[in-house]
Amino acid sequence: MRVHAGSGLRLDACVVAIGAFDGVHRGHQPVILQAVSAARTFGIPVVVYTFDPPPKAVFAGATVLTSIEEKLRRVAALGVDHALIARFDRAYASPPPGIFIEELGALNPVEVRVGGDFRFGRHRAGDVAMLGRHFDIKVTESVCCASGEVISSSRIRDLLARGDTSTAAKLLGTKAGPE
Asked: What percent of the chain has pLDDT over 90?
């Protein structure tokens, strides 16, 4: 997997999976794996467009689940060709959503994969519907664990804060077995 910093990557065509992907947990993996599958079908590269640190760490002080090195290791293991890492800070988040759309356009995505709650741009004004006016968007449904709860980075952080490292590890996909 080739790693790119900033917005310098240019491609003739690709499939892009976008997200913070903090933890690259069992809820994130389908977004990336569906992008990989689509890219292989089209015969084009797959790009994971991610942010470091994750937006919730910048705006809400959330604990980061995985270092950028670990995130990249997990992303590479899923068969991704390129990882594009945007250095996330308040300045990065301040331009209007159209700037992000322009940057994404430089990748010439045939398809863009996101979770249904993906937001971008100043005040999180950009959403999946806005992206859909510019690109072919495929939304990956939330993944739930055996108890029916959505697997999310926030939930994993909560489990870790409560000392439930076993369940957190299972949701992160680092330990086999059902929750």
From this structure: 75
